[in-house]
Amino acid sequence: MEARDSPVAQLQEEASGEAGRGSPVTVSNPASDNVSTINPECVSDATALQNCNQDTNCHENSTDENRPLSSTESLRQLSQQLNGLLSGSSTYVNGDGAPSPVNEKELEARNQELSAALDSSNLTNSQLSAQLQQLTQQSQELNDQLQKERKEFEQKCVKEQGAMREQLQVHIQTIGILVSEKTELQTALSYTQQAARQKSADAEELNNRLQASKQRVSELERTLSTVSTQQKQFDKHNKELEKERDSLRLEVFRLNNSNEEARQQSSELTEQLRQRVSENSSLTLELDDLRRRLEMADVMLQQFSNQSGHPSANQQVQLLMEEKHQLEAHAAQMNESVVQLQTERDQYALQIQEDGRVWKEKTEQLLSQVTMLSEERDRSSTQIHELEAQISELRSSAAVLHEQQQQASVDSAPSGPSETEQALQEALNTAQQERDALSLQYQAQVRDNEQLSRLCQEQETRMEELERETQRSAEEVHDRRRVLEDAQSDKATISRALAQNRELKDQLAELQNGFVKLTNENMELTSALQSELHVKKELARRMGQLQEDLHNGKEQLEERSAEVLSVCEQRDQYAAHLQQYSSGYQQLVGEREELHKRVLQQAQLMDRLQHEQVQGQVQLQQSHQQLQDAQEKLTQLARDNEQLKSEVQDLLNGSALTSTSRDQGDGLESQSLAEGAEKSAIAIPEDFDSREEMEEFLQSVLFRVESERDELKRLLDMETRLHQTALQQVAALSQQQQQQAENSSSSPNVSITNMGDAGGVPVEVHEALRVAMEKLQERFTSVMQEKADLKERMEELEHRCIQLSGETDTIEPKSHHEAAAH
């Protein structure tokens, strides 16, 4: 009865205790839910028992049915009580028994403990829920702060980027403006520098041309004096070269003869070597046959010694011994023949060495002669080039002299070439003849040198062939010695071979026994290996299973690690984004600083360009000032010239002389001036065939201009002399007039006639001087105009020279490529 009443009473106490506290527990436990779902039958039994006890605890049971359980401990006790109820008697079910007071006290104490535990767990749960709420609030606050900071940072970045972009655009525009201004200033500077360089180059070229013309005249005078001495030296040298050529031809003839003799000797020696080689080959074959016979005889001897039953064994042994003696005698003969061949070989080797030494000496001599001839050929070629250059210079000087003589003898009829021209033409002809002779000698020497070089090459090839033949003969003799040594050692080797054969038989028997043992051991090893392989297969299968398990575990670990890595990557991404924002901000700051630096540099460049522009303007102002000074000087010189002309005209108006011879002379001078003006017109061809032709044309033009300058100087000197003589005559006439005036009182008639004569002379002199001065002025203006035209033509010719040089530079590599291709 106690057992029956105990669980019901306990339930009633729990319900009463919980109702007395007035705070039903609404915390749901997953464990209790699980238990209620797992054991529904026990719950239905408990409800049935509670319905049976309606007389005692109807109100309390109704509250217990509506209230859910609070903890796992109560569920455990309920399960135990239900198990006890099922195992109890029916009397307890009918209400006949009563619970014991001891169990009720224990249950009450237990209920109190459980209630205290529930309270503590409720407190802890409430605290944890509060902490969770606080943490969630903090996390939400942090997320809000992060989002706000991100938005603020993005807004700041956008604003700063916009400002920086505006600044960059402004800087780019300023840089473009500065670059355009810089290019304009650079172009202006380049134009001014080019103009200044051109002017300086023109001035330097004019000075250089004057100096070059002066130096050219002095050099031509020197070369004319040295050509005669050089011609004599060339004649002597040509004679010496002819003598050396004859001697070299004789030596070449001798060397050819010696080469033919050496060829014949070498052919004879090669034939003898071939014969000896054939004899040696036949002897080697015979030695091989003898060796084979000896081996067969030894084998037969062994067989007959082993066979003791035959009666004719002794006879056969004797026959074999006789054959052996015969073979030994034949081998001795062969050895003697080999010794003779060795001696002959040595003799041939000595002869070949002597011939090689002689040929080497001859080739060395020939090489030395060839080197000497090549050096002399180079010298002669350089001399020929020098002569050609001198001849070209003489031709140009002759042309200049001829032009000068033609200009000097314009009025006089051409009476034939002068002595100097004839001498120069004779010198040119002789120089040309000498050049042709030297060229022929040079070609002959080149041919001789080529023949000598060919002969030297042929001799070297023959020497190499002879050396190869000697090496072959030495190798053949060495092979023969080896054959003889082998033949001598065959006798000892046969006995050794028999003993070795016996030893080999014993060794073969031992090897067979060992082979049998090894086969047995191999069988045992194979069986052991098969058992071990079976064990290894099982182990491998187990290892495969373990590897599969490990692989599965690794995959699970990799999945978890991947999840961890994804979390870490997200964290790293957030950190990287923050770093990128910070690095972008730093880069923007650095770019802003760089832009400031560039702006400063551009400002410095602008300052430099402005300074350079100011300097260029100053230089331009200086050049303009110099040009103005030069123009003022020119105007002042023109004024001085006009004053001088007026003074000369005043002097000429006060004096007069009659001189028909001078009038004729003036006519000649005017004619010469007119002819000179006609000659000064230079016809420039439009196209030149080569650069040399253009250089010759330029040289002729320069010489012509120099001759015209000399003529003008001569004419000026003549006019100054005439002017001085006219002044002297005017002074003499004035003295005579004074004397006549003093003597007029004594002889009036004579004075009248003299005065009449004196009054007619000054007018003619004045007219003649006026005409001469006008001619001089016209000639001076024409010469200045011609000089300006010549300058322009010279510039055109220089431009053409540059074009021709460029074309020749482009043509030369093409010709080299074509020559290489051919």
Automatic annotation (TrEMBL):
Keywords: Coiled coil. It comes from Alosa alosa (allis shad). Residues 333-811 form the Golgin subfamily A conserved domain. Residues 104-163, 592-654 form a coiled coil. Residues 733-747 have a biased composition (Low complexity). GO terms for cellular component: cis-Golgi network; Golgi cis cisterna; Golgi cisterna membrane. One of its GO terms (biological process) is Golgi organization. Residues 1-39, 54-75, 200-240, 400-436, 462-482, 655-685, 733-758, 801-822 are annotated as: Disordered. Residues 57-67, 811-822 have a biased composition (Basic and acidic residues). Residues 25-39, 223-232, 403-432 have a biased composition (Polar residues). The keyword Coiled coil applies. This is Golgin subfamily A conserved domain-containing protein.
